[in-house]
Specification:
There is one protein chain. By secondary structure, the protein is of the alpha/beta class. It has one domain: Metal-dependent hydrolases (TIM Barrel), CATH 3.20.20.140. It contains seven helices and six strands; from the N terminus they run αβαβαβαβαβαβα. β1, α2 and β2 form a beta-alpha-beta unit. The protein is globular, with a radius of gyration of 18 Å.
Length: 245
């Protein structure tokens, strides 16, 4: 892969991988878009996967999904963050157990793609060094993000487990409040705010994510939750698939 990206350091916004793109020259108005694309590190920070991913649907072949390995290769995409998503469920022991099982199944699917289905074409990165090495070997990079802090329930130790599996960012909530923070989109049976932003447990979660190197993602969270996360976090936060309002 012909890339002139020589530095992958000092940008926390790439979910704990520490990636930064240094181009040989800044692109000016006269720059050819194809050349800029070819010289840049091209990545997608949020690729949702279905429950059939790396099972019934082989992402190493051309599929109906917007992103798969052949499309990444054809489009010149270097890195994709594949998402371990768990929808908000009941905050009960049974609900937390289901969320944990769903998360593990999604992690397993991403690993199956990279380690069994086409390991010669894509590999999971756990660090900036991995990204540089994988790209230098001419392969695509798979990174992993987690969507909805419900994946940990109230068990902080799961963050370390998910970090070991490659999780490098976590969206604090999704649609519906959880134990970590208020969502920007409460469910119909929920009040507009439950915690008034980040909960006390949420502050512990952010601190542990900082310790491990898991990026704090504020997409889907309420405005106050986002402000609280920015205040509490010792590292920059990201909005992986949203923007300011």
């Amino acid at each position: 892969m012909n890339r002139r990206t020589t530095s992958f350091r000092n940008l926390a916004a790439l979910a704990g991988l520490g990636l930064a793109v240094t181009l040989t020259a800044c692109a000016g108005p006269e720059s050819d878009p194809a050349t800029v694309h070819e010289e840049a590190l091209v990545l997608d920070t949020h690729v949702d996967i279905s429950s059939r991913f790396a099972g019934e649907v082989n992402p190493c072949t051309m599929t109906e999904r917007q992103v798969d390995v052949p499309k990444m290769e054809a489009g010149g995409m270097d890195v994709a963050f594949f998402i371990v998503y768990v929808g908000q469920g009941e905050r009960t022991p049974e609900g937390y157990a289901d969320a944990k099982a769903t998360a593990q199944a999604r992690f397993d699917a991403i690993h199956r793609m990279a380690e069994e289905l086409c390991p010669d074409r894509i590999e999971i990165a756990y660090s900036a060094d991995d990204v540089e090495r994988i790209l230098a070997e001419g392969k695509l990079v798979a990174a992993i993000g987690m969507e909805n802090g419900y994946v940990i329930g109230r068990d902080l130790s799961l963050l370390e487990r998910y970090h070991e599996l490659g999780g490098r960012y976590m969206t604090l909530s999704h649609n519906g409040h959880n134990d970590i923070c208020d969502s920007a989109n409460p469910r119909d049976d929920e009040p507009e705010a439950e915690h008034g932003g980040l909960s006390d447990f949420g502050e512990e979660v952010v601190a542990e994510m900082n310790r491990l190197g898991i990026m704090v993602d504020i997409s889907h969270v309420s405005s106050q939750s986002a402000l609280d996360a920015i205040r509490v976090s010792q590292a920059p936060v990201i909005a992986s698939h949203s923007a300011t309002k």
